[in-house]
Amino acid sequence: MELNHQFTVPVSVDQAWKILTDVERIAPCLPGAELQEIEGEIYRGIVKVKVGPIQAQFKGQASFVDRDDAAYKIILKGEGRDTGGKGNASALITAVLTAQSPTTTECVVNTDLAISGKVAQFGRGAMADISDKILAQFVQNLNAIIADQPSNEDTKTPIQNQDSGPRKIDGPIAAPINLLETAGGTIAKRAVPVLVVVAALIVFFVIK
Fold first, then answer.
1. What is the pLDDT of residues 44-101, one digit of tens each?
2. How far apart are the first and last CA of the chain?
3. Is 36 exposed, middle or buried (0-12, 13-18, 19+ CB in 10 A)?
């Protein structure tokens, strides 16, 4: 299943590249997501979701497959699973940045998503709708970070010794995604148990 998204950010392509490849920095922009540890080029975390009073969380990880700094292109692999056994997913994500002006950059993201288990019963339309809304929240949070940063800020992340083992991330605690608000009236409430899994997986894969 293929999902396609694009968005713009109000900075130069060089600045956008530094920000959007800084996973540790942008992870809090993803609704419900918490980055927990980094080991080399592998990023592990959880996604929290809720439906009314019920809350759940799901585990996933993402890693760089290829990174072309000259072409502003990255390819990542993502994997996620529901600990309750309702579904698993993997994805190959390709993101390309293009300068639209000296102060505007477009990001095009293609996600090749493979799903199994109960989540597979929902089609592309339902998943695309949820991912569109999650991405809109991500971009809103990202633009807030961009607006707050000094224009000359260096966005480099600490360099990790790959032999030192996982580095724990002491980041902000994420509020869970409210699935009913995110899904809106697109999908019947009877589908909520499965959509909890769908939303969690899409957060990991839509852009990471």
1. 988 887 767 777 777 888 888 899 999 999 998 888 876 666 667 788 889 999 999 9
2. 18
3. middle
Amino acid at position 177, single letter = I
Instruction: Look up residue 141 and give its amino acid.
Output: N
Would you list the domain boundaries of the chain? Answer: 2-149+169-206
In this prediction, residue 8 carries a pLDDT of: 93
pTM: 0.76
Which one of 3.30.530.20, 3.30.2130.30, 3.40.50.300, 3.30.70.20 gives the CATH number of domain 2-149+169-206?
Answer: 3.30.530.20
| pLDDT given for residue 206 in this prediction | 54
